[in-house]
Amino acid sequence: MKRAKTIMLAVLAVLVVALGAAAGLLGYRISGLRRYQEQLSLGEKYLAELDYENAEICFQKAIEINEKRVASYVRLSVVYVKQQRYSEAREMLEKAAEYADPKGEESVDWIEQQIETVEKEEEKQNPGSLQDAGGQDKEGQEPQKEGQQAEELFTAYLQNTLIPQKGQANLDPQEGWMYSQSDSWYNPLGITSALLEDLDGDGDLEMLVIAIEDPQDPGDYYPDGKDLTGAVYEIVQGEVQQAAFTVLQEYNPLMGEYKPHTFLLPQADQIDLYVSLVEAENRKYLFCQRYELGAAFADGSTQDYWMMYYQDGELKMRASFTQPGMGSSEFQFMGYLLENGQEVSGELLYSEAYGEPGKYSTFDEALKAFFGPLGIETAFTDHMTSILTDESQETKILSYHTGVKERSSDYRSSKFGLDATDYTGLGQRLEGAQPDSQAAGQPSQEPETGEELTAAQAGEAVAAYYNENYQPQGKYVVFESETTEEAGAYKVLVRYQPGEGEVGTANRLMCAVTVDKTTGEAPDDLGNSWNVRD
Q1: Hey, which residues does 342 pair with through a beta bridge?
Q2: Above 50 in pLDDT, residue 338?
Q3: Whether the predicted model's global pTM rises above the 0.70 cut
Q4: What is the pLDDT of residue 297?
Q5: What 3-state DSSP class applies to 10?
Q6: Region of residue 527 (left: phi > 0; alpha: psi -120 to 50; beta: else)
Q7: What single string gives the DSSP state of each residue in 335-371?
Q8: What are phi and psi of 328, to 5 degrees?
Q9: Apex 384 CA angle, 260 and 288, nearest 5
């Protein structure tokens, strides 16, 4: 009996020691988890404050505490992207993939998508950075020239067709006085931005053109208002063609046929407009934001946020966070979601109207609850600032601001100012393109016998031949940017610009001509042949 008690006491002692050790280990793990979360939270705080140095230190400490947790690697990669340290960002994401849960929120597939996003951002900031010294891309394949050719075609189309048709909006800082609604201190009409991007993910480059235009269907309320429009152009069989066109305006079915057309109207007391391209839901969205303080109201304002995407030749609405009415008496916000242009849900998200409470108690909560599930990070600060908070997710296209700077002593007139920015480099793109000498009306330079032809001389001679021999109602043109050199000859593309009253696509491709640089022989792909030196 005494022996049995001794054995039992020994067993209990072993259990006590084991439980103590387990408790100590559990306490250590809990302490480690707490320290990890503290460093992660502190790093998030520094990141939000744009203090990247301290954010990096915190996330690195979190990794030291627990190297198998994915979040610290992902957040550290964000810090590196903000500092344009792209190779280090990819390294962190690749490390995160080693510990990622295949089915978790930050899965391997999700991390691979983030790596692709980092690489795209690096290529955008430093073109050619993903190619090695031998001119090959990361996969070891020869870089394709289709993108460069598409850029040249789009640039030529902008310069020779769209700018002559629509004009180029003057976004330079401006100021002017207005006495009445009929006064106009500046003319904002024209193209503001032209973004080259694979908008629908089909591997081909499209061109998104944003413009300010007179409305095709003017409303009665603001007859002097302007439309903000968006058009998408694609390249089909070597020709630039318009694939989609729409007025960039929020989805608001409760407004019915009411069309104020107040976009970019200088008479409004204040207008703040942002247009961006945002990546979310594995799709590229055109994200528009507008705030407007209307001069027609004593205390009225409108603010709207909406998302559109390009697919199957259409610009389609995805989401609209908008006011169903105008003026502070109807300060309510509806949230609409759409699929393939059809409304699938609509609800009152925020309201200050008496007796009609919204779903959320604050405007900021409503914004985050609406756009968050769509993969868009937002935070409302003031009307002069974009609500988008994740810069790595956003490609800026246009920002536009007008507002009252000064009022006359009798308050009968106001001085307005314009401050706008195009982020697509439209001006630089047009400056870098060489205008076609035929389209510009410059005389052809006759090549001297015995001298090797230049690309410009070959193009000018070909255009002159077609215009002289076929005497068109419009004219044949050649764009030097489209002329390529191959095996001692130039390949020249001949396009036709319809004359007044003629039907047809502008700059329609007619044929290709091969011009021998030395002899001047010029056979085309229609079976004709001549010598450009004759």
Answers
A1: 339
A2: yes
A3: no
A4: 45
A5: helix
A6: left
A7: EEEEETTEEEEEEEEEE-STT---SSSSHHHHHHHHH
A8: -65, -20
A9: 55
